Q: What sequence folds into this?
């Protein structure tokens, strides 16, 4: 595991600077929050692993990492600021307030979510969807924000938002398996057995060790 103690959004992992850094990895879990890392050469060396067939599991803030230029707008395929989003399979640029998210699994036949029950999180961040870049939806989230009145009496009306919150993608010439979920801002969510089951299944799927019934292949589960 590579850990960077940076508390901001500029974590730099020395391992990512090395040629062939990924040669001994079966899968890479991206759980970094690197929104202000904007060096294309550094990012391309990360992406090289996935172009060459190493699967990825992307969690929460990984979706808002390695972005620059006019990333708030839909990126154009092939541009240097599009490559990270192309690996993810979906472009997201921001989120709303922390409120519970009602998660509904949409692809009932995917082994990643087969048999999983819909559930509602504790307060979480619902990441927006700017555009889909190959993602295959597994789950969507609905977040309702209640009416709010500030100290001056100004009222912000109640609202609701929908977004894809879990998906798969096939990336690059080798159609590398990619699993991503935007859920997971708070520890209470990450500790939830339902969240852990989803991520574990996504990881097993990415490395080809998840059976059609949603159970781990022999030797890869409890």
A:
């Amino acid at each position: 595991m590579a850990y960077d103690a940076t508390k901001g959004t500029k974590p730099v992992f020395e391992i990512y600077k090395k040629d062939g850094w990924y040669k001994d990895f079966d899968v890479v879990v991206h759980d970094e929050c690197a929104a202000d890392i904007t060096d294309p050469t550094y990012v391309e060396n990360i992406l090289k692993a996935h172009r060459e067939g190493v699967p990825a599991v992307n969690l929460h803030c990984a979706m808002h990492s390695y972005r620059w230029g006019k990333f708030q707008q839909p990126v154009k395929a092939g541009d240097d600021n599009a490559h990270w989003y192309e690996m993810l399979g979906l472009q997201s640029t921001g989120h709303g307030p922390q409120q519970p998210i009602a998660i509904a699994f949409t692809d009932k036949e995917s082994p990643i979510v087969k048999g999983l029950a819909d559930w509602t999180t504790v307060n979480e961040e619902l990441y927006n969807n700017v555009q889909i870049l190959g993602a295959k939806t597994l789950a969507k989230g609905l977040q309702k924000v209640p009416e709010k009145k500030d100290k001056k009496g100004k009222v912000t009306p109640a609202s609701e938002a929908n977004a894809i919150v879990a998906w798969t993608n096939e990336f690059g010439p080798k159609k590398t398996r990619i699993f991503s979920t935007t859920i997971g801002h708070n520890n209470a969510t990450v500790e939830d057995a339902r969240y852990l089951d989803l991520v574990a299944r996504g990881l097993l799927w990415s490395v080809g060790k998840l059976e059609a019934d949603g159970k781990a292949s022999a030797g890869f589960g409890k």
